[in-house]
Prior knowledge:
The chain is an alpha+beta fold. It has a single domain (5-176, 276-413), classed as FAD/NAD(P)-binding domain, CATH 3.50.50.60. The chain contains 13 helices and 22 strands. It has helices spanning 13-24, 49-57, 61-67, 104-117, 163-166, 236-242, 244-254, 259-262, 306-323, 327-356, 361-374, 380-389, 406-413, and strands at residues 5-9, 28-32, 44-47, 69-71, 73-78, 84-89, 99-103, 122-123, 130-134, 137-141, 147-151, 153-156, 175-176, 179-187, 197-203, 207-215, 224-232, 272-274, 277-280, 285-286, 289-291, 297-298. The strands form five sheets. Strands 6-5-15-16-17-14-18 form a seven-stranded mixed sheet. The chain has a six-stranded mixed sheet with strand order 8-2-1-12-21-20, covered by helices on one side. The radius of gyration is 21 Å and the shape is globular. It starts with a strand and ends with a helix. Residues 5-343 form the FAD-binding domain. Keywords: FAD, Flavoprotein, Monooxygenase, Oxidoreductase. GO terms for molecular function: monooxygenase activity. Pfam families: FAD_binding_3. This is FAD-dependent monooxygenase.
Amino acid sequence: MRSLDIGIAGAGPAGLAAALFLSRAGHRVELIERFERPSPVGSGLLMQPTGLTVLDALGLSPAIHALGNRIDRLHGADALSGRTVLDVRYDALAGGRYGLAVHRAALFSTLHDAVAAAGLPIRTGITVAKAETRQTRTALHDPDGEIVGDYDLVIDATGARSQLVAASVVAPPVKELPWGAFWATLDCEGVPHDSTALTQRYDAARVMIGVLPVGRAHAGDGRKVAFFWSLKTADADAVKQAGLERWKAGIAGYWPEAVPFLDQVTDWDQLTLARYAHRTALPPYADGIVFIGDSAHSTSPQLGQGANMALLDAAALAHALSSAATLDEGLAAYAAARRNHVRLFQLLSYVFTPFYQSDSRAIAWLRDRLVATVAKIPPAPQILAAIVSGTLADPFARAGLEECRWLESVLQEA
């Protein structure tokens, strides 16, 4: 395929990764970002073997590992009885896989620094309101109707609230999920915690409290954890009105060991309310625009796949374009490459959510008694590890990737 002029709306992880892959393939790219200064949004996230493989393909594995924190298992217990109800271990699968918890700032800076080093242009302070396709070119407009760019292809990486996908002919129905979470980034130096696990406490499925050790946001910083507490988003204002101390006391009652983290929270402004929605654009392209990341698909975060799926989208899109004779063929190949993997993990996330975020005590009882028992019997541990790793269906071959050699990576780090 000839070299393309590509405009990428959104300078988050998906957009930055796409810019790197496509520029290395010989395309001319520029990023358009609505903020005056690109920056990450949110607290911590868990990079799975899928996302780590994408970063490795970009040559960014050393940089992200220098900041992140290795996670070997996901462990959850009933807050009242102490009974283990979730224990997923990456080493249930052969090969030495693991997760890497990172602060969103660490992932952003790793990708952004690579984009800057490559000299790729980022135009900031520009809000993209709509796109207009004429013949073979697509123009992006700001809210005043002014053209801010004209391209052979536009990549929408603006996230779950994308105006571009909402206005497109493939606009998906959006199902707002009732449950969200308060998140905070807190210090963990000197605070007892399991540094190799995502640790959670539950009261049925109504309460989920978690601690994810995410390493450092920047080189030289102290180590942090992402602390989260799930709730119905409709109840958030009432929780705030009841007072911060009451909220903290409730958590302390469930999980006394969390008090050193709670003591660091002195203002509601330290907490961010995350809201989630379920949506899928089919196909993930239309009228000169291709959608990646949360613009194309989003769901609950129960399986920790969001950023990882976005990075896979970027890799798959670049690979599809490099293998096609025409742009139309490339976009169709991208959609085909990601279809099964996206659908599978959206379905799994949707199915798993009520077991950890719902009002149903029956589902929670089933999780704690039956599911927790079955999960210990092979091949259930291997299946759960593959689900969490994002590899229950192979996402690599059709994205032009070869999975990391995990045991070699471990030896090199040692």
